[in-house]
Amino acid sequence: MAVPFLDLKQQYRQIAGEVRRELDEVMENTTFVLGPKVGAFEERFAALCGTKHCIGLSSGTAAVHAMIWASDLPAGSGVILPPNTFTATAEGVVLAGHVPVFVDVNRNSWNLCPCRTETFLKENDRPGGPADPKTGAVIRALLPVDLYGQPADLSAFEAIAERWGLLLFEDACQAHAASLEGRPAGSFGTAAAFSFYPGKNLGAYGEGGAVTTSSDDLAAKIRALRDHGSAQKYFYSMIGHNYRMEAFQGAVLGVKLSHLERWTGQRREAARRYADLLSGLPVELPVESPGAKHVYHLYAVHTEKRDDLAAFLKGRGIGTGFHYPYPLHLQKAYAHLGYRMGDFPVSEYNSSHNITLPMFPEITLEQQAEVASGIREFFGEHAGVSSV
């Protein structure tokens, strides 16, 4: 039995009628950019995240960039983030005129480690504040990532930010409807960025993103920045960008938002089934952090034989992925920052050992059993090989 890594067609079949009605309304009113569909979605998503504001944008990359850009950090500020994330996290920092400063992650959650972050700040404290020893950039913000759908230790980062006088941003691009200690992802710190890329837990039919915040001033500035720096048409108070969300995407996201709670429950149930099916096999399973609600955007396991296992499963028609196969501190785009292999061993381990298994709300027990059977068969053929 072939098992796809992701199956968006199944989801569409459930909601096709709702989606078509919403898109027809957009066609009838001909407001194709921003407009009432985007506004309605923004209001509902802000409520889900427990924030005063949601600003719909053109992508998750735009969201990371816009929230940092609008924060008015001094040019060239250092922003601490993990190396094992999608490039958009660091890209947003650079595009806003600042410097990514990498700190290693926690071995269980694969998220930015608060203890390592605090140690880094203490060891590199200077009269003008802690600074990156490689670039000299003064640290002024933290940017933890909710990797795979599990919230970072955001309460700890709030405390660190308070102690050191830093801004706290949250990359929640994989964490729609996740929570920590009852607080929704997207509600921590100064602002949070979300992606609505089609494969996300809450995905558009195209590109989309958003910033959530409870700061009136920051929200107003991001709304202006997304529309060429204009709060009033043809009057420009600042240099901005075209980061506006399309009405079609606002309409689709509005439909999907009504189903997100159910889909999240299905993902969590699928994760429980994987834990049972893979029990006893020589792979390291994901661990839900204490107090966290993991929404399993991705179901990542770890094994020494990652590449061989992926090839074996591909031969059986089972889709897999690597998230992410090469950490950012070793990428050519960030070579100027001066990092090298061995600087972040936990992130490097994650990058070389993770394999993400098929995960979507509609995945069946039979499909998951097929995945587990393939993994069991693989390790039966590779008995005696260290796996984690």
Largest sheet: 7 strands, mixed
Characterize the quaternary organization of these chains.
single chain
Shape: globular
The CATH homologous superfamily of the largest domain is called Type I PLP-dependent aspartate aminotransferase-like (Major domain)
**What's the average pLDDT?**
97
Secondary-structure class: alpha/beta
Gyration radius from CA atoms, angstroms: 21 Å
Please state the second-level CATH architecture of the largest domain: 3-Layer(aba) Sandwich
Number of strands: 12
Detailed description of the structure:
It is built from twelve helices and twelve strands. The protein has 388 residues and is α/β, with parallel strands linked by helices. The chain folds into two domains: 8-257, Type I PLP-dependent aspartate aminotransferase-like (Major domain) (Aspartate Aminotransferase, domain 2, 3-Layer(aba) Sandwich), CATH 3.40.640; 260-381, Aspartate Aminotransferase, domain 1 (Alpha-Beta Complex), CATH 3.90.1150.10. The chain has a seven-stranded mixed sheet, with helices on both faces. It has a three-stranded antiparallel sheet with strand order 7-6-10, with no helix packed on it. Helix 9 (260-277) runs parallel beside helix 12 (365-381). The longest helix is centred in the first third of the chain and has 22 residues, at 8-29. The two termini are 27 Å apart.
